[in-house]
Design brief:
Elements (H helix, E strand, L loop, with lengths): L8 H10 L5 H11 L2 H18 L4 H8 L3 H13 L3 H13 L2
Helix pairs in contact: 3-4, 3-5
């Protein structure tokens, strides 16, 4: 496993906190305190773009539905193809839980 460029003790502490969340309500409460509304919306748009890219939507459709720039969509696409598989792992887990 390659060492992440962002890995440090402060981020480890944040992620340990996130891993304690047990419900959707816990997530809403924590992330509403942690992030601004615009930060949360931006993250949700990127997540939706990743889902749509995985489903072979074209950039113009993704931009229209998410409001993201094509540059941001391209970045999400690069992460899907060459990143740490973070998006792919989460998308697969969501799909698996939805089908259970």
């Amino acid at each position: 496993m390659m060492k992440s460029k962002i890995r440090d003790e402060k981020i480890d502490y944040l992620f340990r906190g996130i891993l304690t969340l047990d419900s959707m309500e816990d997530c809403y409460n924590f992330f509403e305190d942690l992030c601004t509304v615009s930060e949360l919306k931006e993250m949700s748009r990127r997540m939706l773009a990743a889902k749509m890219l995985k489903e072979n939507y074209i950039y113009s459709e993704i931009a229209a539905q998410t409001g993201l720039s094509t540059a941001t969509i391209s970045r999400v696409n690069r992460c899907l193809k060459y990143g740490s598989d973070g998006y792919l792992s989460v998308l697969e887990r969501i799909e698996k839980r939805r089908n259970s």
